[in-house]
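Q: Hi! First time asking for a complex rather than a single chain. Here are the components, and I think there are two in total. Is that enough to go on?
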Amino acid sequence: MTETKHLLNRLPNDIGGLPADPIQRTDHELEPWEKRCHALADVLDFHKILNTEEKRRGVEALGAEMVGKLSYYERWIAAFANILFQKGILTPSELARKMDEVAARWESDGTERSP
Amino acid sequence: MSQHGDHYDHPHAEISHSERPGYYDIMETAVRELLIEKRLFGADEIRRQIEVLDSRTPALGAKVVARAWVDHEFKARLLANGRAGCEELGITFYDDTQLIVLENTDTVHNLIVCTLCSCYPRSVLGLPPDWYKLKPYRARAVSEPRAVLAEFGTHIPDDVDVRVSDSTALVRYLVLPKRPDGTDDYREEQLAALVTRDAMIGVIPVSVGDSQ
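A: Yes, that's all I need. Here is the structure of the assembled complex.
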């Protein structure tokens, strides 16, 4: 059992003090959707819908695999969706429908711009 | 758009420059539009917040540091209440956070981190660099700060304490670096131009050779 103890003692975000690789001084200019995602988080916070601590916990609740594989803002938007479901503000099916609509709208916009 | 005119010469040219949006890009748009439809906030609020984010850069923090270097009374107020000090210089705090300014001296070197995620003094520095949000910095800054600093080329003498401050959702930190030697005749704006983002995180000192 002791080989799983660390899973309880440390949730995925709690990495302070663990051994890790050398620091690579990476950075990137945010993609437009990443910046919108950040602004969305701030606006949700201003309206007391979702605060920083809920956001962090929401990312942690994605679990170690998603925390490891998704990029920073991918984790954020996935966490926001889950939190909004839990709060009863959105439902999974209405988000799925809306995502289809957004994708379809993009396809049709693309067609309009094509010759 | 001139593409229509060019179309004659390039019948197969793709007109659109934009790639098909990715899954998470679509998810962001869908979440935002649903919340706007439900009148939880307005589309203008997102646009305005993007402008706020774009307006926050390390130049603001640099202005605060330079003022603290030239005005001892301001520095005392800034160290007593970081947020109020920044607000004196017209820097508003758009999030509900406090700011603690940590002064580097001949005996103390400060470093800031957020081990749990990515809390950062965004109102005064803008958004953090990627490395600040990634595991190596978050994991190691608290346990082996001197080794981390060395990877940034910063070597702190053994008789200088290295203090690491771990940010939280409500309390953020900003390092007030040491004023470099040889800058006695610099004007405030010239001093500000020396102060980099990384110096205000505490991973490098401010030096006269640097500029933003």
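A: Chain B is about 45% helix and 10% strand. Let me know if you'd like any chain examined more closely.
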